[in-house]
Design a protein that fits this description.
cytoplasm, 4 helices, Glutathione S-transferase, alpha+beta
């Protein structure tokens, strides 16, 4: 009998934000189920799990609440598996620099 996958990711092919999460999940060797979202015809699952922004990615883990925003999801993945390919540096000051760079790049992508 197959093992049930605990993580599910709602994303969109071509979304840099969803791809960021997909890359991190693969890097950390976390198995997940992927669901493609049509952003022109948003699913009930997307509208229910991310009612404010109505965008991807959305990560579902076990019975917890849905997680949105790719950078927050990356931090969560680092917290649940800190020893497997850490995504952020160990020291807080270095992590701040990484967050500043990530937010800057996100804002640049969002304005394109």
């Amino acid at each position: 009998m197959g093992q049930k996958c605990e993580m599910k990711l709602l994303g969109k092919t071509g979304s840099v934000f969803a791809n960021r999460v997909r890359f991190a999940l693969k890097l950390k060797c976390i198995e997940y189920e992927y669901f493609e979202e049509d952003l022109d015809n948003k699913s009930e699952l997307l509208l229910k799990s991310n009612p404010v922004f109505q965008n991807v990615p959305v990560l579902f883990h076990a019975d917890g609440p849905p997680m949105i925003e790719s950078l927050a999801i990356l931090e969560y993945l680092d917290e649940i598996q800190p020893d497997i390919h850490p995504l952020l540096p160990l020291y807080p000051a270095d992590r701040v620099q990484c967050r500043i760079l990530a937010y800057t790049l996100d804002n640049m992508v969002a304005t394109l």
